[in-house]
Amino acid sequence: MNKWSLMCLSCVPFVSSVNAMDQFIDPQDGMLDVSSWVLDNAVGFMPVPIIITDPAVGVGGGAALLFFHESDKRKQLREENPDEVVGLPPSVTAVAAAATANGTWLTGAFHFGSWQEDTWRYQGGLFYGSFNLKFYEFDQPFDFNIDGLYFMQDIDYRIAGSNWFVGAKYSILSSKSTFDIGNILPGIDPIDYDMNDGSVELKVTYDSRDTIFTPNDGLKAKVGTSFHNQSFGGDVDYHKTRLQANYFAPVTSDLVIGLRGDYQTVSEDAPYYARPFINMRGVPAMRYQGDDMALVEFEARFDITPRWSLVGFTGTGKAVEEGQSVSEADYRSMVGGGFRYLIARQLNMRAGVDVAKGPEEWAYYITVGHAWQL
Length: 374
What we know:
It comes from Vibrio gelatinilyticus. Keywords: Membrane, Signal. Helices cover 9% and strands 53% of the residues. The protein has 3 helices and 16 strands. The protein has a 16-stranded antiparallel sheet.
């Protein structure tokens, strides 16, 4: 082998490294961007760090890997219009694991699929974990652990090319709950019980958002009722109805506002974990539960540059107990802010950090996409 061959071979790692780094630079503005890596690379994935500071479970962390899969139609549209965000969503597969200081942990896999030019939308997941939380009854906290396996299958069908979808979802949770009431009644052993909770949900959805990741415009609204009973593999009988809406509007070229509404109601005999709770940044999971729950949130995002943004948000909600009037229930509010970076321009996906102050304490969140999921 002559010296020129040796020189060429010695350059291969460097050239490969340069080509690999090029996939993380957007040729449009020369900024860091993962669009090419996750969409053009057969093994491309997006690692997402998970930092948990939810007051309900304590400080912790983990990681998720997101794998993106494009349809031939979406890839064609993207290559024909490299400076535009294609409206057709890609399919996404994710695997994740996380744990916190109080012993809570979770692992699982999830898939979102979009087929036939977004006529069909599918979601499926399998998760296993153990959660150490507090259950509040008459404002008195009870420590408990719930561990188990959760499986779900979800399908939506677009009606005649419109923004309307009809769909159904099946899920089953096989769990074991253990309540420690020793802090209330010293000397009493923990109480535990096993339960299977199977359900079928019927739903109608409207979705006019410009992207599923970080919308700048459009509305997604959904109404659905889930029926939980022994016919679907469960041990309990109850039903739950939920109305949700996320609305986004560009006020100027640099300012996008969002409004979120969520209402839930549950029938009698629902297990403790199925009762609606106020779910907002800054509020611990299951801290404020009731038989009925309603909340509203407002968010504004200001784009300092095409890549960097600041966000501010606030919200309030009520959880109404059985026998309690709406006026008797207290408002639970939060306020916060954060920043975003446009990490994948061709997906219009922004990522960043939020800080929120709830009724009792502060919390911090890493956000990929939008904080409001529906």
